[in-house]
Write a structure and sequence with these properties.
- By secondary structure, the protein is an all-alpha fold.
- Helix content is 72%, strand content 3%.
- It has helices spanning 46-65, 67-104, 124-157, 179-194, 196-215, 227-230, 237-273, 279-326, 329-350, 359-386, 393-426, 430-433, 439-445, 450-480, 489-508, 511-542, and strands at 32-37, 40-45, 161-162, 165-166.
- A hairpin with a 2-residue loop joins β3 and β4 (165-166).
- α2 packs across α5 (196-215), α8 (279-326) packs across α14 (450-480) and α13 (439-445) runs antiparallel to α14.
- The chain is globular.
- The model is unreliable at 1-11 (pLDDT under 50).
């Protein structure tokens, strides 16, 4: 069909060129409640907003009220899910990577998001900055040093057993006493968690949202991806449930990241300025940074999120280049290619879902990561979809899958290899003895100008915190308003506020264990949603007109 098709949903740009839109009588906002509460206007999907908000408010109140009981409950929940469902998470991750590669290198890759004549809304630099800042921010700061060091230490320590069961946390078969082999295994395991698999999870949902919104003319909300399977039923309770799950997954996935960010910012402030550690400092940080995120949310995507993402990208590159230059430069440069090779070499074994002996690693690290990435996928997927109009499907997948993966490899190599080199070659053991949130600051202490670089690292954590919170609030608001991209500001402030409250509740109710437990528990049901969405995406792509040949 041509691009002259009437667009009933004024929130969206009309397609440019040929598309194959879905013919439905549904219009964006038809099930919404529009009202004024004092001076504030509201425009909310009555069921999605209502159920999601009530569930989140109830969670915050119950967790705050029963803090002592919450911590063991969260610990047991996380343990049960990762130990019983590790095979499911690992298998799902493999499926998403394979689907992305098949789509990219098949004729489906010649579909263009937004129509055959659509042009990109953002330059490559602006696009990549937003992809990277939204998708990985706080996690890279938190785990950039601590994860490679953790895997190295457990690998070089070798396998430990008790009553015939492995008790060590080393990946695969470890590398007892061999520093070089332990380094390569550690970096391969780290890159496995930050490379193709998480970006494939994001890419699948982001592509589905983009195609069904910009090409098919449906609302930019998770339920739209299911139209080929559910048809008009997506406007009823099946669709409501999908969107509610997406809101809950996004909320708790973000809360996990915000909790990590606050603990790391608190550790950095204690390290530099002797600010007291503890829940109070973390909570004050959450409150302060949430307030900054609100200001960014109110400024909108272009003035707020995009500008902060670009600032963050510049700061991250400056810090990375500094460590590259003053650290073990030659080892880092050669390590980048060696780490890539090691990743590819160990990938089949790391991605094996069955018969694993390294259960602490596969359950405690990989299963948690995959659940965390999946819980982030509605947020990151919708955000990527909104900024990717005009890209071909092949360009989209290659860019979303390969470019950020390589950036993550570079980041982990620079920070991880530097820290491991400090331990192995300089005998600098302080970096291994600090708590996880503090290890990046201890690594920087072993380099020149550590006071300045540590301060830059704190700023990076804070701004990553803000970009995650504000872009997450925008996305949750779109889902809970029935797909309306532009909605009243108080709604975005509501979601931004509750992201902070959920993070505070989880910090008080068990800290890191509680944060991880909720990411895993919401990631599991949404993994099932995502697998079904993948099949629906392929059906949707098949019917779209293609560009060019090949």
């Amino acid at each position: 069909m041509s691009d002259n098709t009437t667009d009933k949903n004024s929130d969206y740009m009309k397609p440019d060129g040929e598309v194959n839109p879905i013919d439905t009588d549904y219009t964006i906002g038809q099930d919404n409640i529009v009202m004024n509460v004092g001076p504030f206007g509201l425009d909310i999907h009555n069921r999605v907003f209502g159920v999601s908000a009530l569930l989140i408010i109830a969670f915050v109140l119950l967790t705050m009220t029963f803090q002592d009981q919450a911590e063991p409950l969260f610990g047991d929940l996380r343990g049960w899910l990762t130990s019983n469902l590790d095979w499911f998470f690992i298998t799902a991750g493999n499926i998403f990577v394979l689907v992305c590669l098949v789509i990219a290198f098949s004729p489906l890759g010649r579909v263009r998001i937004g129509g055959t004549q659509a042009k990109p809304d953002y330059s490559y630099l602006g696009w990549f900055s937003m992809l990277f800042a939204a998708g990985m921010g706080i996690g890279l700061m938190f785990y950039g040093v601590s994860e490679p060091l953790s895997h190295f230490s457990s690998s070089v320590g070798g396998i430990a057993t008790e009553n015939g069961i492995r008790t060590d946390w080393a990946p695969l078969g470890a590398a007892a006493g061999d520093n070089a082999a332990a380094t390569q295994l550690a970096m391969a395991a780290t890159i496995y968690h930050w490379g193709l698999h998480p970006w494939a999870i994001y890419a699948v949902l982001a592509l589905g949202l983009a195609i069904f919104s910009f090409n098919k003319g449906l609302p930019l909300t998770i339920r739209s991806v299911f139209y080929p399977i559910l048809g008009e039923r997506i406007w009823g309770w099946p669709g409501h449930v999908v969107d509610i799950l997406a809101v809950m997954a996004t909320m708790f996935g973000l809360a996990t990241s915000l909790g990590l960010g606050s603990s790391q910012a608190a550790a950095g402030l204690h390290f530099l300025f002797d600010v007291p550690l503890g829940d109070t400092t973390q909570i004050l940080l959450v409150i302060g940074i949430t307030a900054i995120a609100m200001a960014s949310v109110l400024a909108g995507l272009e003035a707020g999120v995009k500008r902060l993402s670009e600032i963050n990208m510049v700061l991250a590159v400056v810090l990375l280049l500094f460590v590259l230059v003053v650290g073990p430069t030659l080892a880092i440069v050669t390590g980048f290619f060696q780490n890539l090779w090691s990743y590819l070499e160990y990938l089949p074994a790391l991605g094996n879902p069955m018969g694993r002996e390294d259960t602490n690693f596969s359950q405690g690290w990989t299963a948690f990561y995959w659940a965390w990435w999946i819980s982030w996928s509605p947020f990151v997927g919708m955000f990527i979809a909104r900024v990717s109009r005009g890209r071909s499907v092949r360009e989209f997948i290659i860019s979303v899958l390969i470019v950020p993966s390589l950036a993550c490899v570079l980041w982990m190599t620079v920070f991880g290899n530097t820290a491991i080199s400090q331990v192995v070659n300089q005998g600098y053991l302080a970096v291994t003895e600090g708590e996880l949130p503090l290890q990046i600051f201890l690594m920087l202490e072993g380099l020149p100008l550590h006071s300045i670089t540590s301060f830059v690292a704190i700023i990076l954590v804070v701004v990553f915190f803000v970009t995650s919170s504000d872009s997450g609030s925008l996305v949750i608001d779109v889902i809970s308003s029935g797909g309306k991209v532009e909605s009243p500001a108080p709604q975005r402030v509501f979601w931004c506020t509750f992201e902070g409250l959920v993070a505070i509740a989880l910090i008080l109710g068990g800290g890191l264990v509680a944060l991880q437990a909720m990411a895993v528990s919401t990631g599991f049901p949404f993994a099932i949603v995502l697998l079904i969405a993948t099949a629906s995406l392929i059906k949707g792509l098949i019917s779209e007109p293609k560009i060019g040949k090949g």
